[in-house]
Design brief:
Elements: H1 2-21, H2 28-57, H3 62-89, H4 97-133
Length: 134
């Protein structure tokens, strides 16, 4: 799913290039938030690949991996999507629904990352306890 989502980021780059070089163009405000949404989506989706590999190696249950993955991917969509929403609904210098969606995405990302980190630490402690018992 993440690999397919990366293709949408590629399409976004193609779209941004078309808008920047077209006759209508974008206002500086629109360009700023298009770039922010596009950049966050790309970086966070690459992080999602690492996140999913680490979750699988952390001896977490399939159910935990599934829900952490969903939480992380929702965070990616909310964080980057909020920038696009602000581009459409927002005004320069003022908060909008996009601002809150972006912040909500940050919270979801933090929950998923901290939860994964706790799982990795718990797994490391189990491994250390097993080594000292033998």
């Amino acid at each position: 799913m993440v690999l397919f989502a990366i293709v949408t980021v590629e399409f976004g780059g193609w779209s941004l290039l078309g808008l920047l070089t077209g006759e209508d163009g974008l206002t500086p405000f629109q360009e700023q938030f298009f770039r922010a949404g596009h950049g966050h989506a790309g970086v966070l989706l690459i992080l999602a690949l690492a996140f999913l590999v680490i979750a699988e190696r952390a001896s977490m249950s399939e159910r935990s991996q599934f829900w952490l993955g969903i939480t992380f991917l929702a965070g990616v969509l909310f964080q980057s999507g909020g920038f696009f929403l602000h581009l459409l609904l927002g005004e320069e210098g003022a908060a909008s629904a996009g601002t809150w969606v972006t912040r909500g995405g940050a919270v979801l990302l933090a929950i998923a990352l901290v939860s994964l980190g706790m799982g990795v630490l718990r797994d490391a402690r189990r491994g250390a306890a097993l080594q000292t018992d033998t």
